[in-house]
Amino acid sequence: MKVGIKILRQENGVQRVYLSEIENALTGKEVLTEVFRGRQATGNFNESIFIRCGEDANFYSVKNKADIENWINERLKRKGK
After folding, report:
1. Do 62 and 49 touch, CB atoms closer than 8 A?
2. 14 phi and psi angles, rounded to 5 deg
3. Structural domain of residue 24, as residue ranges?
């Protein structure tokens, strides 16, 4: 399943944005690894993490590790049906 990741951080008037796309994600852990990579790129004190799946044009906010894994794994299950 195609997964898009967007991470934002703003500090002192400077905004950093990390955009990534996984063409064929198979697990929530794979997506989580990419989220951690993005958090390192923008700085670890970011609070705005957004993910989208499949052909959905909208990004959805997720906050923590469990939310990310659950969100992705639920969509992977739906796709498998």
Report:
1. yes
2. -110, 125
3. 20-63
